Amino acid sequence: QVQLVESGGALVQSGGSLTLSCAASGFAFSESYMSWYRQAPGKGRELVATVDTVGQTKNYASFVKGRFTISRDNSAKSVYLHMDSLKPDDTAAYYCNSPSWWPSGPPRFGSWGQGTQVSVSL
To answer: Whose CB among 18, 32, 45, 96 lies 3.0–4.6 Å from 39's, allowing a Cys bridge?
Structure first.
């Protein structure tokens, strides 16, 4: 069955950096687009970034463009999100999943991981 395990979240100061990881299993990872999403308290889940199957083409939400970088390692079945210049508005639980189509189709997998919490202080 599909498993998505996110890690790497932490409490950081505004302007800091962090790298999140997502380990995937149970599906054809190397044939799947992968995305990072986030959900802030009291808000809906939003798409942050998507990477193609080989890690070449990337798509970002406007609110993270230039600050975040998505990447993947197919041999490790993992996708990463490197975040620079973090702001308090980036505070959220971050999740990975695979979009149904490029770059922002609905998530394929209904069973989400536990997420990883990123908290950015002033």
So the answer is: 45
